[in-house]
Amino acid sequence: MVVRKTLPALIAGLLAVGTYNSALAVENDELDAPLGVWGLDSAILPLSGFYGQIIGGHYEAKSVKDASGNNEQFSTVLPLAPGGLTVNGTVDAKIITNVVVPKFVFISDDVFLGGHAGAYLAIPLVDKSREVNVAVTTALPAPYPSVIGAAASQAASGKQRGVGDVELTSFIGWKQDELSIVAAFNIDMPTGKFDKTSQVNLGTNYYSFRPLVSLAYSTESGFDVASALSYNVSTVNKDTSYKSGQYLTFEYAGTYQFSGNFKAGLQGYYLDQTKDDQDPNNTAAMPIVNGNKARATSIGPIASWQSDDLRTKVEFKYLAESGARARPQGDLVLLTVSRQFF
């Protein structure tokens, strides 16, 4: 009888306070910048004209890291004793994001400030899922561990499919002999669905602004190297008053042209959050720990093929993350098909 009376209260309490004490940078462990999409085409502008791109991406993380880089732990306080009882456990998380992004790019033939200006619009079609398995390690009489673990796992898991946050970018590029420079300004608009009670959302529910500058150096021997530095600033989530911290992203790539059509090399990025997350109303289900400052690095192979007329290009990337802090750690696969229409 005691069990029957107490279990519903336990489950309700779990659902009310969230699932596990997490240190995830950016609300709902999202990031504004589409990491890994940047590449040599972003640093060395192609010929002027109108381009269409289809970007297919698969991101899979099998762990979520806390602010110290350890696997996230479950911890909550339940009303099982005077003053509450702290219940701890382990967390196994599988986070999968599949995305198809139609992207429309225009590069002007006219000279502006000594370079060529352009813009692009990217519309992500997203399929997200999060499967969380919480195992209670606190010694409790049966069936409390299994019931608490199941309730916490269910509350932290979810799935969504639809349109994400649309990205609009303007840029200008210059080229002088082997050196190319591109300056860009990105705006991520809150077009994706957001529900503050959901663990998985298609959008962030705020605007993000991201200036970027990239440098590329091409050689006659076939080696190309490029890097980009960007800084992301976001507005406040109007539904939760949560403000995600600012962060810096450094991306790099190097390739060798093995033939007139085929290139291969390495690409990676380094992410470092510089400003703390802010939750002035203290309403977030997952509390801020040490500012929720995210960090991650990645590296992996890239390969591309381009047609003889330079109008069609196919590019493949595989980037493996490491050293994650306050965010998921996973692997990213990207396949991009580009075509110049005119």
Helices and strands in order, then pairings?
Blueprint: H1 2-17, H2 40-43, E1 49-65, E2 73-78, E3 85-112, E4 115-122, E5 125-136, H3 144-156, E6 158-163, E7 166-176, E8 179-189, E9 208-218, E10 223-234, E11 247-257, E12 262-273, E13 295-306, E14 312-325, E15 327-340
Antiparallel strand pairs: 1-3, 1-15, 2-3, 3-4, 3-5, 4-7, 5-6, 7-8, 8-9, 9-10, 10-11, 11-12, 12-13, 13-14, 14-15
Helix pairs in contact: 1-3
Give a quick account of the main beta sheet: strands, pairing sense, barrel closure: 12 strands, antiparallel, barrel
Shape label: elongated
Order of helices and strands: HHEEEEEHEEEEEEEEEE
CATH superfamily, by name, is: monomeric porin ompg
Distance between the termini: 75 Å
Average pLDDT: 86
Give the strand tally.
Answer: 15
- CATH architecture group name: Beta Barrel
Estimated helix fraction: under 10%
Oligomeric form: single chain
Question: Would you tell me the structural class of the helices and strands?
Answer: mainly beta
Tally of DSSP helical segments? 3
CATH topology, anyone? Porin
What gyration radius follows from the Cα positions, in whole Å?
Answer: 23 Å
The domain count comes to 1
**Low-pLDDT residue intervals, each spanning 5 or more residues:** 1-26
> Beta-strand percentage?
over 45%
Name of the level-1 CATH class: Mainly Beta
Widest beta sheet: strand line-up: 1-3-4-7-8-9-10-11-12-13-14-15
